[in-house]
Design brief:
- The structure holds two protein chains of two kinds.
- Chain A contains eight helices and no strands.
- The longest helix of chain A has 21 residues.
- Chain B folds into two domains: 87 residues, Orthogonal Bundle (Rna Polymerase Sigma Factor, Chain: A); 79 residues, Arc Repressor Mutant, subunit A.
- Chain B is globular.
- Classes of the chains: A mainly alpha, B mainly alpha.
């Protein structure tokens, strides 16, 4: 066994984690290699030094905070729970169903007959021109007839046409 | 853990009690900040709690636990989110002595021999510095190997590398420590 092959086994040897065969092989190498023997000794010394590092204890607040965090975790539901309707969802779904039924049962709002549609189409050109006529500026410049004249005219019409009411 | 999976809250409390101290110590040595170590430990336990129903005992629980912890610690070390909060391990730790925590002791009271106390503190400081100087992955490997006493198979699963890669990682780490701690190693050799 050469020194480079030793590298990956040296710590295992120091820890006593090598298999029996590997350990014997290592000891055989160490008996003839002063450099590797020195390294083994120094790794052992490092191991002892690492034991001197002090440990810490969890703070008192750790447990309290941990308990609070666990308590705040939502309860995990199984996949089957997905099918179990919650009261709120069931209520919302039934209200939606009722609204749908009510809207469906209402009579249609004053449906137009084919004859009405024809009449509207015939008068469409007049309706389209209504806005133009109502805002036609020259008409506003015409003198407005007096109200008294309108009444006289009406009386005259009634007197000249007495048979209309008969 | 199987009891926790079955919904036994008491078992989770036991699990917490058993593993919190080794986990906090591991994280403390990884991130070099006590407060951050406790925050990360809480995160580890919460993740375990959340994943309890999906837990499959294909690996040892400690392997799973320290894998979560190592990933969080490595991310945290690489991340500089906590850089502002970092407190050197050399800074005095102001905690209650009742906790049994690491504490800057009253020299006159606890150590009649001040020189001896100073020598001890210097040794500890050198050891801490040597560990801190290791690259993160080497540091994690040494901590898991030395202080958690996990076997190579477990550590290689935690660090997601092959066993031979882990042995190489540990060898390089111990070589660095051997050089960094040379004066103490030499003293140790004389004893």
């Amino acid at each position: 066994m050469n020194c480079s092959r030793m590298e990956n086994k040296i710590l295992g040897y120091v820890d006593g984690r090598l298999k029996e065969g590997e350990r014997l092989e290592m000891e055989k190498h160490l008996s003839t290699c002063a450099a590797c023997q020195l390294r083994v000794n120094e790794f052992r010394a490092v191991n002892v030094l690492l034991d001197e590092l002090p440990t810490i204890e969890p703070s008192a607040a750790f447990d309290i905070r941990m308990q609070a965090r666990v308590a705040a975790e939502p309860a995990k539901q199984s996949w089957w729970a997905w099918f179990t309707p919650s009261p709120r969802i069931a209520f919302a779904a039934s209200m939606l169903l009722l609204a749908t039924v009510w809207l469906g049962s209402r009579p249609a709002d004053s449906p137009l007959s084919a004859a009405d549609v024809d009449k509207i189409n015939q008068n469409m050109s007049v309706l389209e021109n209504y806005d133009v006529i109502s805002d036609f500026a020259p008409l506003s410049e015409l003198p407005q007839p007096a109200q008294g004249d309108d009444i006289d005219d009406a009386n005259q019409n009634q007197s000249t046409n007495p048979n209309q009411q008969m | 853990m199987l009891d926790v999976k079955a919904g036994d809250e008491q078992s989770f409390a036991l699990l917490l009690h058993r593993y919190r101290s080794p986990l906090i110590n591991f994280l403390y040595r990884m991130v070099r900040n006590r407060e951050q170590a406790e925050d990360l430990a809480q995160e580890v336990f919460i993740r375990v709690y959340r994943a309890r129903e999906d837990y499959v005992p294909s690996a040892k629980f400690t392997t799973w636990l320290f894998r979560i912890a190592t990933n969080l610690a490595l991310n945290s070390v690489r991340d500089n989110r906590y850089q502002r909060m970092e407190i050197s391990l050399d800074a005095p730790v102001t905690v209650d002595a009742e906790d049994g925590d690491e504490k800057t002791l009253d020299v006159a009271e606890k150590h009649p021999n001040i020189e001896q106390h100073l020598v001890e503190e210097t040794r500890k400081k050198m050891i801490r510095h040597a560990i801190e100087k290791l690259p993160e992955k080497q540091r994690a490997a040494v901590l898991l190997h030395k202080y958690q006493e996990l076997d190579y198979g477990e550590i290689s699963k935690i660090l997601q590398c092959s066993e031979s890669a882990l042995k190489s990682l540990l060898f390089r780490a111990y070589e660095t420590l051997r050089v960094e701690l040379a004066p103490l190693v030499a003293q140790q050799g004389k004893q």
